[in-house]
Amino acid sequence: MNIKSVTVVGANGTMGRNVSGIFASFGGAKVYMVCRNLEEAEKAKKKAASSVKAEAIEKNLIPMTYDDLELCISSSDLVFESVSEDINIKKDVYKKIAKYINPHTVIATGTSGLSINELSMCFDEKIRKNYMGIHMYNPPYNMTLCEIIPSQYTDTKLLNIMKIYLKSVLHRNVVEVKDAPAFMGNRIGFQFINEALQYAEIFKDNGGIDYIDSILGLFTGRSMAPLTTSDFVGLDVHKAIVDNIFNNTEDYCHETFAMPEFALKLVSENKLGRKTGCGLYQSIVNSEGKRSTNVYDITTGVYRPKEKYVFPFAKQMIKELKVGNYRRAFENLNNNHSIEAIICAQFLIKYVIYGLVTTREIGEDVHSADDVMAAGFNWVPPLAVIDAFGGVEIFKRIAREKLTQDYISQIDLDDILRDAPKSNYDFRPFFKAK
Amino acid sequence: MTKKIYVLGGAQTDFERNWSKEGKGVIALLKEVIDDGLKNINITYEDIIELNKLGKIACFVGNFIGELYINQGHLGALLTEVNPAFYGVPSARYEAACASGSVALDAAITKIKAEDYELALIIGWELMKTVDSKTCGDYLGRAAFYEEEAVGIDFPFPKLFGKLADETIIKYNLNEKRYLDNLAKISTINYVNAKRNSNAQTKKWFMNEDQANTRGTSSNSMIGGKLAISDCSQVTDGAAMVAIASEKFVKENYANNEFPIVKGWGHRVAPMKFDEKIKEGSTNDYILPWTRQTVVDAYRRADLIVDDIDFFETHDCFTSSEYIAISAFGITEPGQEYKAIESGQIAFDGKTPINPSGGLIGCGHPVGASGVRMFLDLFKQITRNAKGYQLEKANNGMMLNIGGSATTNYVFILGKE
């Protein structure tokens, strides 16, 4: 497909401007960046170019305002909506833009989880078939995942053409996902993150937030610990995602999407994380200019210095990973019966199971969960975790050993793991020796 | 060549990886590349033990300067830390700056040819992201005549290859803008090619001709003379392994022998100092006559000519070095390199593609690994195992690996028997 011009509505937001950068660079498209005012649009243009490390694309980026909607949209092959994650705001914007859209224009929303079917109803039948979700992850230059979500009205031929465009022109890792709350990456990722948050509350007397992050640290197959990730994206965003899933889905992990009390309190106090100066963590600079990290202590309700926990199982795993002994690192995890090692193993195993269950429900195939977690979160993907444990049979045995009876009784482990193939991803780079 | 040397296969690590960020060191790096390489040639560690009992196997390690990057020398012996199967296996490290991988290959080929061993494992590697970029540049300065060409100079190598660009313009009386446009085209071709290679360092990066031509901006700052970041290969961590074997070994161990053979080689050393090189070559048609001679030697030994070569892997540490390689290979006359660039001849779908892998600029340049990585890429193309970057026609391939400012020059030709 030849997409020569794109209108990004809401290009002043982080995603809007970064997506503009992707269309203008890899896509080589002329991008109208529609912002609230020209000053913001000019700023967004600079940031968009810098997000793909290429000033040369600035000439493809055209700052615009909502006053120019008619001009931009009527001459665009694709309109990409990236306004606030509020269904009413989106509906208002759609009302404004619908009249300028010609029958051949592709319309996409960058929503990270609102219903594509519901949103598509804002458009009349003539153009409703051109509407779909195109959900990229931030920052898209590094995170190449692109979930594409058709509504029940989306023209299948157009959907397939867009998949090819996103893959071969924009170099995205494209996964078609059903129109389910939060789609797939955030559903699987935030199941893990929110349950970690719940565990921080359960184990608040052991240390809470930094204690859980130390159990599920970089050595467990990610480049950022789960609660640090939540702090990074913001507890407000975290809350929006898990609330959406909690209110609109019903599966065996339902309760793990409930945000714990202490986190709700932090949200109500606007302690959202890095963007507000403090949240689960707090970065502080002392009088000598030295930076250090504090963590919210759930028991006392105050910030205290982050602990450096030393768990024998983690220390041993890291030692093995440092010299590339992956098998031995996992033997250490499996054979250690400390509470921390058990929590760690349980989280990894439950993540695999939920990933496989979810991909069956809303993904394209058994590899979809791998694609979304590797390319969207930079986490070791579920099937690759099975490989790291030593294959399906060993994984199954360890799962039965480590999981509670309660958990096992809710799932059909044999069925979930039946025909689980080897991952397309190499697990080794994901497990950091730190 | 009298005795046949077969190339069995091998592996490379994903050059996108930053091993320091992963918290992993050289042993993890070597373990991965050797595990993957052995799997690729269907040899186990137990096989190595058995072969070693009979004195049939040896290892050849290419590395430039691990002493500085990771405070480790004695790099041939270090394999014993990877797996006890290497206890007793003859192994040594070979060094010729960025051509370290090739000098290791050369030694291995010689030993197999002499029938000292039947199977040789050649492992090239470098971990460079252990230090900041300025320190890294200074370390690399040891590949020049450090005392005279590098001490106290920030990024000495970009400056030397910037000089090569200047000298190329003067020698062939080129229009500067056209020449720089051509360098931007070279850079872009390498980046575009790298997008097809899942092991390439820059597979997610964006580059186009406009950006490569926007030199001197904050996203493409000047780095040496007329050259900018886009003209330059980047600091890379990585390793590559290949295995070569004698005819006897292949016959005894593999039912289907469709392995490529080493058809030709060349090895020449030019004056160490860049200015001396230019002075010495001033009356020659080729700006780097010893680089050209290395290619000529390889053609002669292989009894092949340029028209017999379907594709090339070259040492594009900078766009200016790929530019001169075009005539050194004989693709054009010296001074007319622009013709092959502007016509699209060296692009992926051109008549004589250069660097289908993405080369050093696109795929990455862990210096001690590069020669082995190129050799492996010739193998992959010829055996049709290059996956996303497989060329249609790939019966014979040539590689040029250089050390220093084109001081050590190595060429290998691989092809179907």
Task: Describe the protein in words.
The complex is a heterodimer of chains A (434) and B (417). Chain A has 434 residues and is α/β, with parallel strands linked by helices. Chain A folds into two domains: 5-176, 3-Layer(aba) Sandwich (Rossmann fold); 185-430, Orthogonal Bundle (N-(1-d-carboxylethyl)-l-norvaline Dehydrogenase, domain 2). Helices cover 48% and strands 12% of the residues of chain A. Chain A has an eight-stranded mixed β-sheet with strand order 3-2-1-4-5-6-7-8. A three-stranded antiparallel β-sheet of chain A has the order 9-10-11, with no helix packed on it. In chain A, helix 1 crosses helix 2, helix 8 packs across helix 10 (226-233) and helix 8 (185-202) crosses helix 11 (235-248). The two termini of chain A are 44 Å apart. With 417 residues, chain B is an alpha/beta fold. Chain B has a domain at 5-131 and 236-253: Peroxisomal Thiolase, Chain A, domain 1. Helices cover 37% and strands 16% of the residues of chain B. Chain B has helices at 26-41, 45-53, 66-69, 100-113, 133-140, 146-149, 156-171, 176-194, 209-213, 247-253, 274-280, 289-302, 319-328, 337-342, 359-362, 370-382; strands at residues 5-12, 57-62, 91-94, 119-126, 222-224, 227-228, 238-246, 261-269, 311-313, 396-403, 408-415. In chain B, the strands form three sheets. A five-stranded mixed β-sheet of chain B has the order 1-7-4-2-3, with helices on both faces. Chain B has a four-stranded mixed β-sheet with strand order 8-11-10-9, with helices on both faces. In chain B, strand 5 (222-224) and strand 6 (227-228) form a beta hairpin. In chain B, helix 4 crosses helix 16 and helix 8 (176-194) packs across helix 13 (319-328). The chains are: A alpha/beta (434), B alpha/beta (417). Chains A and B meet through helix 13 of A and helix 1 and helix 9 of B.
Write the topology of this structure.
The complex is a heterodimer of chains A (434) and B (417).
Chain A: E1 5-9, H1 14-25, E2 30-35, H2 38-51, E3 61-65, H3 69-74, E4 78-81, H4 87-98, E5 106-109, H5 116-120, H6 125-128, E6 131-136, E7 145-150, H7 156-169, E8 173-176, H8 185-202, H9 209-215, H10 226-233, H11 235-248, H12 261-268, E9 281-285, E10 291-296, E11 303-305, H13 312-322, H14 326-335, H15 339-362, H16 368-377, H17 382-389, H18 392-402, H19 405-410, H20 413-417
Parallel strand pairs in A: 1-2, 1-4, 2-3, 4-5, 5-6, 7-8
Antiparallel strand pairs in A: 6-7, 9-10, 10-11
Chain B: E1 5-12, H1 26-41, H2 45-53, E2 57-62, H3 66-69, E3 91-94, H4 100-113, E4 119-126, H5 133-140, H6 146-149, H7 156-171, H8 176-194, H9 209-213, E5 222-224, E6 227-228, E7 238-246, H10 247-253, E8 261-269, H11 274-280, H12 289-302, E9 311-313, H13 319-328, H14 337-342, H15 359-362, H16 370-382, E10 396-403, E11 408-415
Parallel strand pairs in B: 2-3, 2-4, 9-10
Antiparallel strand pairs in B: 1-7, 4-7, 5-6, 8-11, 10-11
Helix pairs in contact in B: 4-16, 8-13
